[in-house]
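In this section we walk through a basic example: taking a raw amino acid sequence and producing a predicted 3D structure, encoded as discrete structure tokens. The instruction is simple. Fold the sequence below.
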Amino acid sequence: MSCPDGVGLVAAVSGLVASWGGWLTEVSNHSDPDTGRFFMRNEIRVESLPFGIDEFRQGFLPLARRHQMDFAVRDSAVLKRVMILVSREDHCLVDLLHRWRTSELRFDLRGVISNHETTRVDVEHHQVAFHHVPIDPAQRAEGFGRLEELLDDEGVDLVVLARYMQVLPEALCERYAGRILNIHHSFLPSFSGGKPYQQAHERGVKLIGATSHFVTSDLDAGPIVEQDVVRVDHGDTVEDMVRLGRDVEKTVLARALRYVIEDRVLVNGNKTVVFR
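The resulting token sequence is shown next.
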């Protein structure tokens, strides 16, 4: 939940849950002095409550209205429905497929969409639906229309861009605001756009990184969820940076996806609050 900041918010929420016999197993909160907003995430042991999730929402509404809260209540046993989008480079996709197959990351994978056929064999090896949706520059609207149909058909909660090298239409970004997670192969806001490793090499940087962020209509400018870096030096070529960067990209995207599917990320304007 989030709301205008004030005194007694933690006590109000925990007191209400306690009055129902609710057992809080994890409590996280953050007060943002810049925006004047308060953010909270609680985990409650479901068997400690005398009613179900719908009754919980109804019972929480009076408190939420009193404090102008935006809130959501979710059952952690219901897995998020995820669609992965990828182009030619498969390192992030293969890593996510492995983490999904071994249940390291728990989500309901509805399929993989690609504008190339390159990754079909790997995807279908895991018995996951593969959808080839070409994006012809002369027929972009038709291609993205088909992509959106697939998202609708599967009732997708979250879209993951695992090195999907197409700029999404503004309407799609707005419709799925806060529900499209991207991995960008640089430490944003440095080196946004295309060929960031080439840009980094030309600038002579000593650190390269990767950034996972929510997608908006502004290219590579959405709220950042997770980042990490690796050290490089004057002897590293662009190819060396690409090789080193791939490992960082995989790790950053997997961490960010975990935070999102576990409902640990709250959007705060163009920033995020991430309760790790």
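Looking at the output, two observations stand out. The mean pLDDT is 95. The chain has two domains: 2-66, 81-274. In the next section we compare this with other chains.
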